[in-house]
Design a protein that fits this description.
With about 70 residues, this protein is mostly beta strands. The protein is built from no helices and three strands. The chain has a single domain, classed as Mannose-Binding Protein A, subunit A (Mannose-Binding Protein A, Chain A, Roll), CATH 3.10.100.
Length: about 70
């Protein structure tokens, strides 16, 4: 599931789509690793841990609602 966090504008510095910094993160062991220099978007595994993945992967997504 896409969570919205990404480091597209600055490698290694994940932000939310509104530009906000991550106050909380739950990266899986060894993540984010930018595998093959192609992983800029955050996804969440079924166990709740996060991974950085290629942004062109097809995933479900989460929306924020105020």
């Amino acid at each position: 599931i896409w969570i919205g966090a990404n480091d597209i504008s600055s490698e290694g510095s994940f932000k939310w789509p509104d530009g906000g910094s991550l106050v909380f993160s739950n990266w899986d062991s060894g993540e984010p690793n930018n595998n093959k220099n192609k992983e800029d978007c955050g996804e969440m595994y079924n166990d709740g841990t996060w991974n950085d993945a290629t942004c062109t992967d097809t995933q479900y997504f989460v929306c924020e609602f105020d």
